[in-house]
Amino acid sequence: MKDDLKRAETTSLPLTLLILLVAFGSLIAAGIPLLLSATTVAAAFGLLQLVSQWVPFNSAASAIVLLIGMAVGIDYSLFYLRRVREERAAGHDVREALRITARTSGHAVVASGLTVMVCMTGLLFTGVDVFKGLTAGTVLVVGLAVLGSVTVLPALLAALGDRADKARMDLLEPGGHGNAWLVVAAP
Fold first, then answer.
1. At CA 64, angle to CA 62 and CA 69, rounded to 5?
2. pLDDT more than 70, % of the chain
3. DSSP bridge partners of 26
4. I want to staple 87 with a disulfide (CB 3.0 to 4.6 A). Which of 58, 80, 91, 97 is the partner?
5. Are 179 and 139 in contact (CB under 8 A)?
6. Which percentage of the chain shows pLDDT scores above 90?
7. Quick one: pLDDT at residue 168?
């Protein structure tokens, strides 16, 4: 399990960064989802040290927390980043774009996170101790990802403003204007 987890860390994080670079075309914008997910996972592991006093928690649960934490942290960031970019392209300033994003993507993030958390609590009814640790870890990391996505992420985007799109990598986008995914998906 430890070898698999180590291999996942060494291959999945660079691949994730590469995919985010292609998707956003900006090193800073690509780093934001990774930053949110990494801090979410770190906070979850810190809080799980406290929770593990009452709930059995093992290495399998640690791997699940890492993988789910990275997935939802990146996913929820993408909801926000994409919508902010759309609103900025529509001519809104940063504050208005964030306000609109909070009403739309922010609600989607909260609904998605709550759905995952509620569904995971069903594992508590199995009575199996291993599932208690998995449930506690997953609910905690998803809850932290939601909290970070609707508080820290908008604050970070507000502080960065237009700088979130600095360090553009136009060679990843056709002609410097298009979307790299159009090239991938084009016949």
1. 100
2. 84
3. 168
4. 97
5. no
6. 33
7. 62
Residue showing tokens 């909801």: 79
Q: What is the pTM of this model?
A: 0.80
Rounded Cα distance between 87 and 98, Å, is 8
Given a cut of 50, whether residue 176 has pLDDT beyond it is no
Count of beta carbons in the 10 Å neighbourhood of residue 78 = 17
Crossing angle between the packed helical segments 59-89 and 152-160, to the nearest 10 degrees: 40
What confidence tier does 155 reach under pLDDT thresholds 50, 70, 90? very high
Rounded to whole angstroms, how far apart are CA atoms 117 and 128? 18
Give the per-residue SS3 of the chain.
CHHHHHHHHHHHHHHHHHHHHHHHCEHHHHHHHHHHHHHHHHHHHHHHHHHCCCCCCCHHHHHHHHHHHHHHHHHHHHHHHHHHHHHHHCCCCHHHHHHHHHHHHHHHHHHHHHHHHHHHHHHHHHCCHHHHHHHHHHHHHHHHHHHHHHCHHHHHHHHHHHHHHCCECHHHCHHHCCCHHHHHHCC
Q: What CA–CA distance (Å, rounded) separates 183 from 154?
A: 30
Give the whole-angstrom CA distance, residue 53 versus residue 176.
Answer: 53
Length of the chain: 187
